[in-house]
């Protein structure tokens, strides 16, 4: 475990060039969609420190460029960077921030991963790569950043300087309308001699971010299973922009366990923002929508097996919620119901090919000429 902790170095690749007159102007920042408000940094890893514990966070938040040295930080209310900002603004209007461009895969993964609260993201990156990352000190702010980054934009976010951010074509497939967010002021730039600008384009799914989301889904299944042992598999389909829909299969042992699983998942970090959760039996492939639809339509009674929770947290980007950050959840229990759950009918037997016929056909398959 000790090998996973970050190690502070005097210099690194990202310190090869230190810009004394920082500006966004020479960075190839994209404007992705026709009605975007301007250019946006879409894959910047935003580094902050918890004002009381000094635990470091990395998060990916979109950043709208205003001019050569100012940008808008889209800190959604539920994100950890926004929590650091909220704590500090009660004492000081400014919080130091480093926007990190590029780096090792483990560091980038750490920035998008919903790790448990209180775990230092730099340490998590070291755990992911089985060796601690190297860090260097920023030049104009009191933060450490990954030494192998391509570029670091140093500055501060000022809670006293609020401006309208957006619109922006986001990963829901809709333009997020204008909303007030705090301003980032650029104070310094460190970079490699020939940096690569890491960015991404988001929009109506399925796009590039789908693959990152799938990696997170697979990586955090063991944690979900540790906290909820009944879980067999878990899927967040990219078409549901990940926060929109989750499908989970369980090995059900007692009445009402599907609803228990829903509630448990809604209580886990960023899964609190998931709009719809469908629970199916262990033998349903959660990654095959045909099987999921079959389970929902054959094992769900609308009155008995749906749960609606009103006035619950929602993703800031949800275009359907009646209010920003507040809406409702839908849970669908698509597991086979038992007598203990009030199912009074005989459970119908599923149609399956008998084993002997299957073996015979499989053994002769190559001779069929198909």
From TrEMBL:
Domain 3-octaprenyl-4-hydroxybenzoate carboxy-lyase-like Rift-related: 10-205
Pfam families named among the record's database cross-references: UbiD, UbiD_C
A GO CC term attached to the entry: cytoplasm
Gene Ontology MF: a single term: carboxy-lyase activity
3-octaprenyl-4-hydroxybenzoate carboxy-lyase-like C-terminal domain mapped to chain residues: 211-334
Family according to the record: Belongs to the UbiD family.
Protein known as: UbiD family decarboxylase (UbiD)
